[in-house]
Each structure stands twice: as structure tokens, then as C-alpha cells.
Specification:
The chain is mainly α. 75% of the residues lie in helices and 3% in strands. The chain is built from twelve helices and three strands; from the N terminus they run βαααβαααβαααααα. A three-stranded mixed beta sheet has the order 2-1-3. Helix 2 runs parallel beside helix 10, helix 3 runs antiparallel to helix 4 and helix 8 runs antiparallel to helix 9. The chain is globular and about 65 Å long.
């Protein structure tokens, strides 16, 4: 099979979900609205957590990091897809493809680990409230954040370098929304079965232990909540935990499908739908899930908006 020159000057053609859609204009408008929603909701949540001193606690520090990851994750993918569709030019350079893959893997991996740390934070707050200040002191909290970023960075770097070292066939079309490992390996002109097995093992290693830790944390939380004497305290704990579990279900469900299920279960169309879900839909919904039922966040948003926006309007 003839090879094409896979150097930094060569490019791929991203044939994403917009190109294969029956109503591409409507889908493009929907993705644009979701992207604007993700920017606005995550931006406001970050602003509230940063500006309001009452939210400078571990729970909201971790939530702020989640919003930052979601904001960056969707920005790595969505603007490129929308611009390509509007300009009718789906080309991405070899270097651009590698960079997009690296950033997506870093942000996805960091979010994977951060969700587990957020579950631990809720476990300590509900099951060991008297020791919360010690177990979740600022140094520990920042160590959790740094661990999420560093481990995800190293994993993404290794996967990106190894994936992009393959020679790719003349068919340059990537039938996917973004540059990811599974669709790129389909273009490789070499036997990738061993590397696919390694991707599977790494996917299981990166996804299953954090997910198991999350499930264990919430089983213990549920047991503790059911024995709470106060109905108000029980309700507040269940609302907070249900929000987290909703986010966990959306993220881990999509990630497991993409990186844990064998390649025989994959098809380009299914992969495209899943990629849209965890790169665009989930980042748009996460801040809404966390904030709409959280009185502290809504109160902080009202205070920040009232302090920084309303005075500006009154001076006009």
C-alpha cells in the first residue's frame, strides 16, 4: 500500500460528525450553542469560585479545576470543528493533530483522576466531618490537583509520541471529530495490535481504579447518610452527591466506551457520537448540574454579578 509523507508538513482530513450528518447546518448550530453554553457556564462558575472568599474551600477548589478542564477540553475540539465546517476545509496538519491529541488526552485524563479525588473529598466531608480540616487541608488539596495534571500529562505525552510515530497510509481521512488514538490507528500501515492492547491496558488502568474508588466512596457515603438524624442534612448530602454521580456517569460511560471496549465494538459513527458527548455535551452540562441545585454557588454568582456588573451598568 502506498504511503504518504507523515511529516510535520503533511496533513490529515478530519471527516467529523458534521460532514456525515443528514442536517449538518442544524447540528452545527446545536454544537455552537452548546459550546457557548460551556464557555459561559464554566466561566461564571470559575469566576464565582475565584472571587467569592466563602467558596475558597477544598470542595469548590476541586470543582473550579473541573470547570477549567471542561473549558479547555471543549475549546480544544469544538472551535476547530465549527470553523472547518463553515470554511469547508477539514485539513489538520500532522503537528496540529498531534497537539490536539495530546491536549485532549491530558485534559480527559486529568478529569478522570480529579473526579476520584472529588469523591474522596465528599467521603471525608460526610463520613469524617471532624477530621475534614486535617485530611483535606490546602496542601493535600493542591497535591490532588497537581497529581491529576502531572499523571495525565505524562500518559498523554507517551501515547501521543507513540501513536504519531507510525507511518500512515495514503488515505488521510480520519473519520472522527478529533485526532484520537483509535481512529488514527486505523490509518497506520503497520500491525498495531500490540499497541492497541497497550492502549486497552492503559485505559483500564486509568479508568477502572478511579471509578472503583468513586463507587466505594459513595457506598460508604450512602451508608452514612441513611443513618443521619437530620432530614435537612441528609437531603443536602444526597443532592451534592447525586450531582457528582451524574457527572461521573456521563464522563466514565463515554470514556469506557472509547478506550476500554475492544475495537470490534467500535464503528466510526458510534465513536463520533461518543466523542461529541464527552468533548462538547458533558462540558456544557457539568457546571449546570453542579450549580443549579447548589445554594452556595448560586448565592456566590448573585454576589459576584451584583458587585461587578450592576455597578458598572448604573454608571452608564
Amino acid at each position: 500500500m502506498e504511503l504518504w509523507n507523515s511529516t510535520l508538513g503533511s496533513g490529515f482530513i478530519l471527516v467529523g460528525i458534521l460532514s456525515d450528518s443528514g442536517s449538518p447546518e442544524l447540528l452545527c448550530a446545536t454544537l455552537a450553542v452548546l459550546y457557548m453554553l460551556a464557555l459561559t457556564s464554566n466561566g461564571l462558575l470559575l469566576l464565582a469560585i475565584t472571587m467569592d472568599a466563602r467558596l475558597h474551600v477544598p470542595m469548590y477548589l476541586l470543582l473550579g479545576q473541573l470547570s477549567l478542564m471542561d473549558l479547555l477540553f471543549t475549546s480544544v475540539v469544538t472551535p476547530k470543528a465549527l470553523i472547518d465546517f463553515l470554511c469547508r476545509e477539514n485539513i489538520i496538519t500532522f503537528g496540529g493533530c498531534a497537539l490536539q491529541m495530546f491536549l485532549a488526552l491530558t485534559l480527559g485524563g486529568a478529569e478522570d483522576l480529579l473526579l476520584a479525588f472529588m469523591a474522596y473529598d465528599r467521603y471525608v466531608a460526610i463520613c469524617h466531618p471532624l477530621n475534614y480540616v486535617v485530611l483535606m487541608r490546602p496542601r493535600v488539596c493542591w497535591l490532588m490537583v497537581a497529581t491529576s495534571w502531572i499523571l495525565a500529562f505524562l500518559s498523554a505525552l507517551g501515547h501521543t509520541v507513540y501513536t504519531m510515530h507510525y507511518a500512515f497510509c495514503k488515505a488521510q481521512k480520519i473519520k472522527h471529530l478529533l485526532c484520537e488514538i483509535p481512529p488514527l490507528l486505523r490509518l497506520a500501515c503497520a500491525d498495531t495490535s500490540r499497541y492497541e492492547l497497550m492502549v486497552y491496558v492503559m485505559g483500564v488502568t486509568f479508568l477502572i481504579p478511579p471509578l472503583a474508588a468513586i463507587l466505594a466512596s459513595y457506598m460508604l457515603i450512602l451508608f452514612t447518610v441513611l443513618h443521619m438524624p437530620s432530614n435537612e442534612g441528609r437531603k443536602k448530602a444526597l443532592i451534592t452527591c447525586s450531582s457528582h454521580l451524574t457527572v461521573v456517569g456521563m464522563f466514565y460511560g463515554a470514556a469506557t466506551f472509547m478506550y476500554v471496549l475492544p475495537s470490534s465494538f467500535h464503528s466510526p459513527k458510534q465513536d463520533n457520537i461518543i466523542s461529541v458527548f464527552y468533548t462538547i455535551v458533558t462540558p456544557a452540562l457539568n457546571p449546570l448540574i453542579y450549580s443549579l441545585r447548589n445554594k452556595e454557588i448560586m448565592g456566590a454568582l448573585r454576589r459576584v454579578v451584583g458587585k461587578h456588573i450592576l455597578p458598572t451598568q448604573s454608571t452608564l
